[in-house]
Amino acid sequence: MPEERKIAAWLTDMDGVLVHEERAIPGANEFIGALRDTGTPFLILTNNSIYTPRDLRARLANSGLDVEEKSIWTSALATATFLSDQVPNGSAFAVGEAGLTTALYEAGYTMTDRDPEYVVLGETRTYSFEAITKAIRLIKGGARFICTNPDTTGPSAEGPLPATGAVAALITAATGRDPYFVGKPNPMMFRSALNRIGAHSEHTAMVGDRMDTDIIAGMEAGLTTFLVLTGSTSREEVDKFPFRPSVVVDSVADLVGRV
């Protein structure tokens, strides 16, 4: 059974697993501490492409969690890694914030709005109609269409905000071109994370709170999957899906002893 595999490395989602509304979930600090104390390779994954790992480290620190930048893997980093593998030192027109543009620059990409090889769409708090129009024209002109993640909405204090997936749908409607989404639930993001820490899927676990992103992507990437009930999925909702996590636990606190 998958849960009987020896686990030598861990991937974990951030929101709903380690933090909730800027507060650490009980047991999260102990879980991260156990990973660090045992020297176990791990990465914290997020589909959010707005922030750099440095930004996210500060956010976690404010929540009471001490995590190094190198232990954070975003959909922007996964996207930059994917593009660098596809077309090294290529060019892109990016719609997004520092998390995306910094990742692309560090991967050797040039930002341009003149005949780029790719249009890369990520999240931003303020989507510009001018930038979306430019993206549509570039895609119709032959640029390939890439998105950091398929999430259609993101949270804010005032309520949901349109996110990458929603704006991608607008661009697809205008161009007739579907994007390639790199982030969860694409197992590509998990494979790039595994490569980052030198881990093998057979001996790696994924901890998540969403069946439709974390668990299905972990399963498709060949990982042992742990669903925690501190986020968006209840125990009753698990049976509604045609697939199951390897193990369901109440919270990340239940996993400290497994590290």
TrEMBL record:
CDD domains: HAD_Pase_UmpH-like (cd07530)
Gene Ontology annotations for the cellular component aspect, listed alphabetically: cytoplasm
Keyword set includes Membrane: no
Free-text remark on how the cofactor is bound: Divalent metal ions. Mg(2+) is the most effective.
GO terms, molecular function: metal ion binding; phosphatase activity
Keywords: Carbohydrate metabolism, Hydrolase, Magnesium, Metal-binding
Keyword check for Magnesium: yes
Residues of the active site: 13, 15
Superkingdom field: Bacteria
Reported cofactor(s): Mg(2+)
Family the entry assigns: Belongs to the HAD-like hydrolase superfamily.
UniProt cross-references to PANTHER family, sorted A to Z: 4-NITROPHENYLPHOSPHATASE-RELATED (PTHR19288), HALOACID DEHALOGENASE-LIKE HYDROLASE DOMAIN-CONTAINING PROTEIN 2 (PTHR19288:SF46)
NCBIfam families per the UniProt record, alphabetical: HAD-SF-IA-v1, HAD-SF-IIA
Official protein name in the record: Predicted sugar phosphatase of HAD superfamily
